Amino acid sequence: MSTTISTTTTPAWHDVTAPASDRVEALLTELTLEEKIAQLFGVWVGASSEGGDVAPHQNDMDDVVDLDALLPNGLGQLTRPFGSAPVDPALGALSLLRSQRRIAASNRFGIPAVAHEECLAGFATWGATAYPVPLAWGASFNPGLIERMSHRIGSDMRSVGIHQGLAPVLDVVRDARWGRVEETIGEDPYLIGTVGTAYVRGLEAAGIVATLKHFVGYSASKAGRNLAPISVGPRELADVLLVPFEMVMREGKPRSVMHSYTDLDGVPSAADESLLTGVLRDTWGFDGTVVADYFGIAFLKMLHGVAGSWGEAAALALTAGVDVELPTVKTFGAPLTEAVRSGVLPEAIVDRALRRVLRQKVELGLLDPDWDATPEALRDVGVDNAEGIRGTIDLDSAANRAVAREIAEQSIVLVSNDGTLPLAAPRRIAVVGPTTDDPFAVLGCYSFPAHVGVQHPDTPLGIELPTLLDSLRIEFPEADIDYVPGTTIDGGETAGISAAVDAATRADVVIVALGDRAGLFGRGTSGEGCDVESLRLPGAQQDLLDAVLATSTPAVVTLLAGRPYALGSAVTGAAAIVQAFFAGEEGTAAVAGILSGRVNPSGRLPVSIPASEGTQPSTYLAAPLARSNGVSSIDPTAAFAFGHGIGYTTFDWSAGQHGPGTIGVDGTATLGLRLRNTGDRPGTEIVQIYVHDPVASVVRPVQRLVGFQRVDLKPGESVELSIHVPADVTSFTDRTGTRVVEPGEIVLALGASSTDLRITHSVQLSGEARVVGFDRAFHPIFDEIARTAP
């Protein structure tokens, strides 16, 4: 191989007029094995708070990293330069700028690194907007709004020099005891795929490489335990767990995928060639990069026991289809080099991954001759004066907060209401419960304050986080508000419950604020590694709730949580139930606005609220024998089902003109709907379409969501819709493992939830079973035929 570069002509990899593949091949042929492998791993770093170079970030899984020794061969990625410790955004951008210049200057070819960050509910860095968590995105049933949010997240990241974002999570909730439920979009594959596609489109449009995770099955772990093994059949894999990835891959065009930690029927995802190459690349045509979940390749040796050495782990992962080791070099460094040198792994496998990595760097402009490490946010300031630029970058703009507020307001679900809400200027309000005066009660595990900020208690939060108590005092300025915590979130204390009961007794209405604290690995009640044995409210919160409900004061139960909980007597005894899923920095104001009526709630449940604490695993996607029946004493029926939610107005549903009752297996069914707002205020109905297959060649869920549409109507206004449902949406995996549309009867239903079906239309599919694949139709089309003014 050549070890010198010609200085008389422009290197071919710098030729921006040449195809990306030609530029990649030109550079690949010049690289030594060590230089190739250096492009296939990241180093976990932290930005300097003074604007200097990044420094390696160490934790229990890290070996000591010597950047001076690594950089002459190059570097593939920088891991979380902003998200490892609090740093002023401008100084973080300066630190990254200087680090990129150092990286490019240190290697023979001037190749910079790809910098990635977490962005699950906003750019996970100090001072950036904390948006609602993905479970709240699902509750909004508003993909367009989520796309606006992700574009803002991506624009903020790109402005300071970040290239790749580790989001969205497309795992389907199968067991709500799993701690990472808050990170998911819900329990329905279609909802997840539709909202996930919107998120990816927004992020990619901003120039950020979106990373789908976790591929695949992470959320189906046994007993809801983090990293536990998965045992699912091929149909559950194909028809539930893979569907969101398939939808987003085709419609969102993401450029990266992250493998899952878990093993599927004994094969770890990081070493599963059938998934990472067979499904992802050979079937779906994905040509981007597959990156490791943090330490996931090392886990092949440490946790899974399928590799006896770091080199074996590296060879397994690379052969399966993993291209980049994250967060830091462990197996893809010297162990991988030795595996190639010794003949254990062909160098061609390294080259295969390298082509994908270099192509992405070409697409990002990192191999252009005029590449400049200076990010957009620093182009008009003097980067030589670190202190002079401190505070000049705002990652929590008013426009960001406006979008965060809109998502919060549209995602909060009014679950039940006996007419107590909206509150009509009550004189005395008691507010009890442990999430009342907790600023962290609206934040998910991957928000910066909860994920990293808690390790730096002397550093300000960086954003304004009004508590629910703060927001209630603003919302009800004339009310006398009496606050008693009653208990903590998970401490189990009961001594304060009597004081809470006394406060409730004296009040006109009592707001019972319950829920979660997000954390990592057991340091919270929700979040990564914070799995639970049952869906009973944490600590003594159920005891507090029961005691307050026993008073004669109307009780409004308000949940600020990361998962659904069984609510016991509150299901029938509460005056109202309001569910917010970690609604972000604008969340408490949104909750207060719903309680006052300033906001008309329009959120719908993306996960079912269980009637019992111990019926997991259970979702609405249930076959007949998974529902309540006479052969089991356990009733898994939810207290409030997927898709449920009410508001402060009412809607009249009536059937419009349906299409023919018989269509071909390649045809389209048509449903007609007339919808009228019969209340006295503007409102939003979410029209949901479900399919029921009475007789199929394999067992099917009784109901399955195949479409939805938000419909806004003024008081007295009506709309007529014609909804066209392609037969493709009825497809499933048959006994041979083939996805087909089967002939026979299907029942299409329009409804307000999975259990509140208002209009049904039986359609006969005629013809022979039809095979469909990656190019099948995923969505119905909603046509507005007419709108009648009030």
Describe the model.
The protein has 790 residues and is α/β, with parallel strands linked by helices. The protein is 27% helix and 20% strand. It has an eight-stranded mixed beta sheet. Strands 11-16-15-14-12-13 form a six-stranded mixed beta sheet, sandwiched between helices. Helix 6 packs antiparallel against helix 16.
Mean pLDDT: 95
Strand content: 15-25%
Low-confidence stretches: 1-7
SS field, number of helical segments: 22
Distance between the termini: 77 Å
Determine Rg (CA atoms, Å): 27 Å
Strand order of the largest sheet: 2-1-3-4-5-6-7-10
Helix content: 25-40%
Number of strands: 30
The general outline is: globular
Structural class, please?
alpha/beta
Largest sheet: 8 strands, mixed
Summarize the structure.
The chain is of the alpha/beta class and 790 residues long.
Features:
six-stranded mixed β-sheet, 790 residues, 22 helices
Set out the fold topology:
Elements: H1 20-28, H2 33-38, E1 42-46, E2 55-56, H3 67-70, E3 77-79, H4 89-106, E4 114-118, H5 134-140, H6 143-159, E5 164-166, H7 189-205, E6 209-215, H8 234-241, H9 243-252, E7 256-259, E8 263-264, E9 267-268, H10 273-283, E10 289-291, H11 299-302, H12 310-320, H13 334-341, H14 347-363, H15 386-389, H16 398-411, E11 413-417, E12 428-432, H17 448-451, H18 468-475, E13 480-484, H19 497-506, E14 509-515, H20 541-549, E15 555-561, H21 570-573, E16 576-581, H22 587-596, E17 609-610, E18 638-640, E19 651-655, E20 662-664, E21 668-677, E22 683-692, E23 704-713, E24 718-726, E25 732-733, E26 739-741, E27 744-753, E28 756-766, E29 770-771, E30 781-788
Parallel strand pairs: 1-3, 3-4, 4-5, 5-6, 6-7, 7-10, 12-13, 12-14, 14-15, 15-16, 20-28
Antiparallel strand pairs: 1-2, 8-9, 11-16, 17-18, 19-21, 21-24, 22-23, 22-27, 24-30, 25-26, 26-29, 27-28
Helix pairs in contact: 1-14, 5-16, 6-7, 6-16, 7-9, 12-13, 16-22, 18-22, 19-20
